[in-house]
Amino acid sequence: MKRSKHILAAVTALLVLSAMTACGGTNGGENTSGTVSETVSETVQSEEAEQTAAETEETSQSEEISAQEEAPEEDEENYDTGDASLDNVRNQDDIGENELLVVSFGTSYNDSRRLTVGAIENDLEAAFPDYSVRRGFTSNIIIDHVQRRDGVLIDDIDAALTRAADNGVKNLVIQPTHLMNGIEYDEIVEKAANYSDAFEKVVFGEPLLTSDEDFERAVKAITDDTKEYDDGETAICFMGHGTEHSANGVYSKIQELFTAGGYDNYFIGTVEAAPTLDDVMASVKAGNYKRVVLQPLMVVAGDHANNDMAGDEDGSWKSAFESEGYEVVCVLKGLGENEEIRKIYADHAQAAIDSLN
Questions:
Q1: Is 178 a catalytic residue?
Q2: Which residue out of 145, 178, 241, 348 is catalytically annotated?
Q3: Over the stretch 205-217, which tens digit does the pLDDT of each residue have?
């Protein structure tokens, strides 16, 4: 806008001086139109150069700010997530003809990654010695962050599938560690379809919560693992992620199983869908509880568990319950640390392998 005003002023000057020249004007009738035209041209060029420089600087600043905003907050983390070198990223070659690709969303919390996703992978490797177990993460934000911070590169889905194809894998079994048949699972299937011609056979294992038996086994595994807190005065609350996908119904189904099994002090909420924290809070308030135990209903105990659930900032589940006068205990333990949960994944991988025959 500022540049336009300067150009308009220069053009106006040209018109005025041209009119004066046509009428005899000043300077003894000397023709000044060429001089004025040159002046306007120089003014316009000067303004355009200034504007270009200003736009270049503004673009540079905007790109820098955008890059800062897009960078994960953990880039400035002042807390320890563990030693990344202890985790086997499983991106080795020399795979052989049979591969079991374990696909996870991922986490940048090194210890949790090793104790959850890594534990699932280790169990699958022990259960299926004829298959090379490899890893693939669906979150490139997490992959990039771990690489910048720790110098460790984890394959994303495309890299893992390309690695499998380049290694001459014939039988590819893909086992997701996702909880449900949701958006992430659908995307994995779609990406794998792009590589279908690279392998003789490709099969998929089911996510954790698929059949009625899966739900029953998961509920038993969860309640057995948390029974030490079940003293009659404690509400045991789980934080799930939540999704806009219809698969979000898994949370209400687990809640129904809790209630049907007599676990009236067990409650489930989500970060991004329903049930919400308000729903969980209302349920807890309806009981006569003095203490609240919070634990993630997620495979890993990553950013959501450490911040949205157990963080000290306003808005976290911990802060919300403390503000209501409850004693709060946060258990930063992902489902992948539960041996019985890992057995469900192993059974799903076994079913997928059996389907190859």
A1: no
A2: 241
A3: 999 999 999 999 9
